[in-house]
Amino acid sequence: MTWLALVLAATPVAQFSIEPLGATLKVELTVSGWKGDCLCLDMAGAEVAITGLPPHPARKECFLRPTKGPVRYAVNLEALRKLRDDPDYAADLGAAWLFHDAATLLHPDGVDTALRVRFTLPQGTSVATPWPQEQDGTFTVTPAQFDAGAYLALGTLRTLDEVKLPGFSARLTLVEGKKAATDAQLREWVRGALATLGTFYGGTPSRGTRPLHLVLAGMPSEDAGVFGSVLRRGDPSVMLLFGSQATAGFEGDWVAVHELFHLGNPPTTGRFPWFVEGFTTYYTELLRARSGAKPEAQAWETLASSAREYCQPEGTSLTERSLNLRVNHEWMRVYWSGACLALRLDVTIRQRSHGARSLDDVMRELRKGEPRSEAEVIAALDHAAGSPLASTHLAETKHVPMDEVFALLEPGSALRQAMTGR
Ligand SMILES: [Zn+2]
Is it true that domain 9-84+100-147 has CATH number 2.70.98.10? Predict the structure, then answer.
């Protein structure tokens, strides 16, 4: 691949050899084309899991390069797991670990680095990543992809048949373990959700170019979908957890639709959950009603009851609650208040365009171009509504008029039919 050769020639190359030993990764790293002496992690906090290198005297996430020879260090995945127990550091999925490349791979400080990564694996163990792989088994990672991040699955894994959809495909890796559902049920769970999203986005929900990389693992639960997490910049990584005791309910599940919808979220700078989570929550209901995965009446009942329970500001604006989500933990309130804004916008856009446009169009338009700031997203939403609807909804501390919106959405109404009719 010529482009890759050019990228590799233009930037320092970090060559990793990785050997797992229980919950430890033994890593050997050689860096060519670089004279510096400081190696760093991009993930704050993950340095606690690294041993074998002298820590940098002033910078917490950095270590000093030995004066000669390769860099050798170890990563304790159990120590990473204890930080948060999710794949943004490391998650224990029973027969496999799922971990973030930025929490485990040190890179030369201050320069863009291309990566070549090789694994030495015990019999029966394999690795799954979103990265392209060469004939000899080496994974190659461009600086942009390394910057975007990846989940690596390492352990006893099995590959399910590739899911092919119009214009894109997905590679499904299953972590081996006891499960009640069949492989075919799990594959259909993901395929159905991806088909729904392919229809919405007019092709792949991802901005990457390679097949989507999904890791599925069972957790003790009778629910079909249990939890998920995605990395959506570059070639994406997806983790979907299903209930190992679940034998049914995969068609109506919300977790896969919700997580995979995130792959298509417009690129943003900074975090503002009222938009990324709120609008995804809205479409998790709408898209399942449209596909028939959830009965239309039930989807509207969920929207109406959640709006009643969570959408009134009660003295604190959505902007403020969303900004402080990591402190206040008001997930439901922020997600559903964001969903209520999405609903108000959708209804307004449809009404003022006499059905020619909807929030769907705006969501697809926002995916194009450079990442937008919170202010830019709000301005685009206000513009689409033809009034400061988004800015006032976000700043409101007393009352948002949801009853008025639902009054327009009686069963059988043309508006409701246009939004969730099949
Ligand atoms: Zn989400």
Answer: no
